[in-house]
Write a structure and sequence with these properties.
By secondary structure, the protein is an alpha/beta fold. The chain has twelve helices and eleven strands. The strands form two sheets. Strands 1, 4, 5, 6, 7, 8, 9, 10 and 11 form a nine-stranded mixed sheet that branches. It has a two-stranded parallel sheet with strand order 2-3. Helix 1 packs across helix 12. It binds zinc ion. Zinc ion binds next to strand 5.
């Protein structure tokens, strides 16, 4: 019975998408100058090995990204985020239909797949990098967790009963911990459940799993930008570099002031020293910030972005700008992309 209604549901969803795509974006254009800030993470072909070990919400394929940038060029004025912020903070007139493209985390695939497209279409963008991880083999914990779980399912399923893995078995997760590797959606659930713990705690627990299950050497190293790639992108004039802290820790209330100062100020200084360019913008990892973190960001940057969904006006807080996150599953065609841009869906 339920299956009979699926086409109707899909039709309703598509109608709502059309409405959001064509009315939603137009409504934003009707009011005072706004800026739409897009949040991307990784640009990877669907058949790339790296894409299969990643949460779906992190990826856009190169083909889809090219079509996004082409459409943005037709309908918006693509501008560097820092340029828009400088105009806003000085009280100058803001451009109509402004749009800024941003990438979080500093993945090597930004250089490999996004940069050539941005050059070809002459579109500026900002890449928020994690300064102490640039050019290293350190990993973000979500990718570590994904690789470890996939590796256990494929090569060590008899170890699922080990007590070191108990913390992953949240009753809410749909993954069954069998010989079948988790789907991207199930990985997304495991990662979201782990966020109840601090970043250090998660890394510690993953270290224990790697150690007791002897997984060292079986986990692939990450794929982050190095300083040469960053410098090439930066000197092109198209890509500006922003800070995404030193170690990608969530800047919540538990983080003390010494750590906050290091993560927020030392990251800026290191990137400036290595690139020779001023770092004007900041991005809060996972969108978390304490009052102390926000105050330090205000003192040291022209502006900052959060993960809150929406558009921004001259009246928006320069250090808590909203963005629209884009990934393949929700922005594959023009209608879906513009519906997403409206902020309604
Ligand atoms: Zn991040």
């Amino acid at each position: 019975m339920v299956a009979r209604f699926r086409p109707v549901k899909q039709l309703i969803k598509r109608c709502l998408q059309y409405l959001a795509a064509y009315a939603g974006v137009r409504m934003h254009f009707m009011y005072k100058p706004k800026i739409l800030i897009l949040m991307y993470h990784r640009i990877l072909p669907a058949n790339d090995r790296r894409a299969q070990l990643e949460e779906p919400g992190m990826i856009v394929t190169p083909e889809t990204f090219r079509s996004h940038v082409s459409m943005l060029k037709q309908h918006f004025n693509i501008i560097h985020l820092s340029k828009w912020l400088e105009l806003k903070n000085s009280g100058a007139e803001l451009p109509e239909r402004a749009c800024a493209i941003t990438f979080d985390d500093g993945w090597a695939d930004n250089f490999e797949f996004a940069f050539p497209i941005l050059k070809e279409l002459d579109a500026p963008a900002t890449v928020f990098v994690v300064s102490d991880m640039i050019g290293t083999s350190r990993q973000f914990w979500p990718e570590r967790l994904a690789q470890i779980v996939t590796c256990i399912a494929k090569d060590h399923p008899d170890q699922w009963s080990h007590t070191a893995l108990d913390w992953l078995k949240n009753p809410a997760t749909r993954y069954q911990f069998t010989t079948v590797a988790p789907t991207q959606e199930e990985l997304g659930e495991l990662i979201s459940n782990a966020k109840a713990l601090s970043d250090d705690e998660i890394h510690d627990r993953l270290n224990i799993i790697e150690h007791v299950l002897n997984l060292q050497g079986q986990i692939n190293k990450p794929d982050l930008l190095n300083w040469e790639q960053l410098s090439e992108m930066n000197t092109s004039g198209l890509i500006e570099i922003g800070s995404h802290t030193c170690n990608h820790i969530r800047l919540s209330n538990e983080v003390d002031n010494v750590v906050l100062e290091y993560e927020i100020i030392a990251s800026k200084k290191l990137i400036e020293k290595r690139t020779g360019q001023a770092v004007k913008t900041f991005c809060f990892p996972n969108g978390n910030y304490s009052a102390g973190a926000l105050e330090l960001v205000r003192k040291n940057y022209v502006g900052a972005v959060s993960t809150k969904k929406g558009w921004n006006t001259a009246a928006s807080d320069s250090c808590l700008l909203h963005r629209i996150g884009v990934h393949e599953d929700i922005a594959r065609d023009k209608t879906a992309f513009f519906a997403r841009l409206s902020g309604w869906m």
